[in-house]
Amino acid sequence: MAARHRVWQIVAASLSVGSGCPRTLLVHRHTGFVRVQGSRFLSSVPRDVVSSEEKRKEVLAATTGLAQGDKFGMDRCFTSADLSAYVKLCGDTNPIHSCESTAQSAGFRGRVVHGMLYAGLFPAIIGSQFAGAVYVSQSLQFRAPLLVGEPVCAEVEVTGITKLRHHYRVTFATSCCKKGEGSALLCGEAVALLPITDPSS
């Protein structure tokens, strides 16, 4: 019996159930199933036990290590060499990225970094933070240009977590801004599938 209970992790105690008797909410370390101590195993939190959004978030935070509002970031400064390498890979030869005078004629102060180059910082952050993550979607809204040599800070913020059968579907608010400035150059939303892992490992 003792060996059986070692695979369960306490995520909430003293919950009011039914008549108001205190119970303990447990999460199975291997399956992610949730149960109330003394009740049958369940694949989701029972409504009469944990009906509030706060308790749902508490369970997800315990099983994923994530909570809404968690932020992850990366700083980068793109050089002329970075843009040349990107052009060789993607074939975008628009001269506003390579020619100073063309960029200025188009209304920019200097050569512009490819938008998709610094948008690539979002999957870089998510992929490096969560091994095995699968990118599902990414929306982008470009608000201002980033010039060659300007330092940029990219950030992703957890805005939603949903447990699926084999993954967690996590939504992130994504944004880029010039380092030291508050206004966003680029914003959007990313969705990724994160693998369910054993929290004890």
UniProtKB/TrEMBL annotation:
InterPro entries: HotDog_dom_sf (IPR029069), MaoC-like_dom (IPR002539), UPF0336/Enoyl-CoA_hydratase (IPR050965). It comes from Sphagnum troendelagicum. Gene3D superfamilies: Hotdog Thioesterase. This is MaoC-like domain-containing protein. It comes from the Eukaryota. Residues 75-168 form the MaoC-like domain. PROSITE patterns: PROKAR_LIPOPROTEIN. Signal peptide: none annotated. Pfam families: MaoC_dehydratas. CDD domains: R_hydratase (cd03449).
